[in-house]
Design a protein that fits this description.
By secondary structure, this protein is of the alpha/beta class. It is 47% helix and 15% strand. The protein binds adenosine monophosphate and zinc ion.
């Protein structure tokens, strides 16, 4: 047997590399968290789902993972927004951070071990800034507002190593903003005087606020130490944020800051990054009003985390906003739940030992977990992992059908039942690293049913009455009336399922 190896793409080396933990058996990872200026959008959801899956997968692979995702609660945009809302900035950001936490929980993201806030780590930030000044990597600059502190980019020779840029190429893009008195246009702020806006903390340079980049250097150092395994975020963070983090941390302490740098691709709308500033965003809440949480997760995991992923938004004639890609994922999720249900039903009274039955399906059941993990070993190949789940679902349906068919052959039926039970376990094992099929089936079906009734303004009592009325019409052989009711319901997206005894209904997604 070969040792399982986790391989991940490293932005720093531009190669897919094996993960070699600094401490055997442990993985430390720091992911840049949201700036809590507004509610979470589906783009945040994508990046954090990637790292949630990474954490789950590494845990299943046997690593003890320490996951840190910070909360940026000090920022100029937060100040502006809080003013509009008429709230003190930290109260405003606390309120928004709570909404983010609720939305991430709704999306099934497990809570990181640490969620540090900038406002609670000002002493750590001051410490690293002072260290950088002492070491000649930062300097104080007088400005009309007071004293700022800047990082001297040219003092850090490897600057540009993450984004693979030459320092001289950066010059053309660099600017000195009005009111800034930095020595070099490449330099970036570690500390800025608050001036008249007055929001800030006392420091050796007067009342001010930290620059954006320094918070992550200070908080990762505090919680994970000078050197940790994985640092991640969306790809917009490669430059300048992560480049600057490397400069600060490696100038202040012993390099390297992190071994592996992982960056997720953007969730896009019409080929543009979904973002607050472009105004093209859909909140996680908006999506979860009409789609199940697992559907959004499945949608994200359907494509590789490093590539772009388009998020389609469609307006229906009746004014409803729908998300076709997520709807499609919801159909797949329903298929998986239905297959697991079928296996669960077929597994009732299964004998403990698996006999020889359905060899093809048995192989799929036996290998599902390993194949999912093997796919995730290869730079988190979630789409291959989902394909394995779908194969397992197909096999589970076939096994359940065989259990029905083998009614007359008890020994064969028992063998198939035992295989059905093994399939139920295989679902649990194969889904664990992906965080899918998390709910009990009844909860999932009840949730999606209620959601669809609600988003389509359908009253379930009236719906039940209509179904009953149609059943009566059929009993009275009034087929014209029965068909008319069926058509009426189909127009509402209601599918009727007739059995010899009764009629049930379900609502299609879409
Ligand atoms: P922000 O709130 O903009 O600071 O972003 C927080 C995290 O979400 C960062 O890791 C970003 O890279 C990521 N992010 C923001 N927008 C998107 C998007 N459209 N697609 C994927 N990740 C995003
Ligand atoms: Zn950061």
């Amino acid at each position: 047997m070969t040792t399982p190896t986790t391989r991940l793409y490293n932005t720093l080396t531009r190669r897919i590399e094996p993960l070699v933990p600094i401490q055997p058996g442990k993985v430390s990872m720091y992911v840049c968290g949201p700036t809590v200026q507004d509610v979470a959008h589906a783009g945040h959801g994508r990046t954090y789902t990637t790292f949630d899956v990474l954490r789950r997968y590494l845990t299943v692979r046997g690593f003890a993972v320490t996951y840190v995702r910070n909360i940026t609660d000090v920022d100029d945009k937060i100040l502006a927004k809080s003013r509009e809302a008429g709230e003190p900035p930290l109260e405003y950001s606390r309120r928004i951070a709570k909404i983010h936490a609720e939305d991430y929980a709704a999306l099934g993201l497990a809570i990181p071990e640490h969620e540090p806030r900038v406002s609670e780590h000002i002493p750590d930030i001051l410490e690293i800034i002072e260290r950088l000044i002492e070491r000649g990597h930062a300097y104080v600059a007088e400005t009309p507002k007071g004293q700022d502190v800047y990082f001297a980019v040219r003092s850090f020779a490897p600057y540009g190593k993450l984004s693979h840029r030459e320092i001289n190429d950066l010059l053309s893009g660099a600017r000195i903003e009005v009111g800034e008195t930095k020595r070099d246009s490449l330099d970036f702020a570690l500390w800025k005087a608050s001036g008249k806006d007055g929001w800030g903390w006392p420091s050796p340079w007067g009342v001010g606020r930290p620059g954006w980049h320094v918070e992550c250097s200070a908080m990762s150092m505090k919680l994970l130490g000078e050197h940790f395994d994985i640092h991640g975020g969306g790809m917009d963070l490669i430059f300048p944020h992560h480049e600057n983090e490397i400069a600060q941390s490696e100038a202040a302490h012993t390099p390297p800051l992190a071994n592996l740098w992982m960056h997720g691709g953007f969730l896009q709308v019409d080929s543009e990054k979904m973002s607050k500033s472009l105004g093209n965003f859909v909140t996680i809440r908006d999506v979860l009003v009409r789609n199940d949480r697992e559907s959004l997760r499945y949608f994200y995991l359907g494509s590789h985390y490093r590539g772009p992923l388009n998020f389609d938004v469609e307006k229906r004639d009746d004014g409803r906003i729908v998300f076709p890609g997520v709807d499609e994922a919801e159909r797949r999720i329903e298929y998986l739940y239905a297959a697991r249900d079928a296996a669960t039903l077929a597994a009732a009274d299964a004998p403990a030992a698996i006999g020889k039955a359905l060899p093809q399906q048995a192989a799929i059941v036996r290998e599902a977990k390993t194949r999912v993990l093997d796919a995730l070993d290869q730079d988190l190949n979630t789409s291959v992992a989902l394909a394995v789940l779908n194969e397992l679902a197909k096999a589970a349906n076939e096994i359940a059908m065989a259990v029905q068919k083998l009614r007359k052959d008890k020994a064969q039926q028992d063998a198939a039942r035992a295989l059905a039970a093994a399939a139920v376990h295989a679902f649990a094992d194969a889904c664990a690293p992906l965080g899918l099929l998390h709910s009990a089936s009844e909860d999932f079906w009840a949730r999606t049913k209620a959601q669809r009734l609600r988003t389509r303004n359908i009253d379930s009592v009236i719906l039940d009455q209509k179904v009953l009325e149609r059943t009566r019409a059929r009993q009275e052989k009034n087929f014209a009336r029965a068909d008319a009711i069926r058509d009426e319901l189909v127009a509402l997206g209601v599918e009727l399922l007739d059995t010899p005894e009764t009629t049930t209904w379900r609502l299609n997604v879409g």
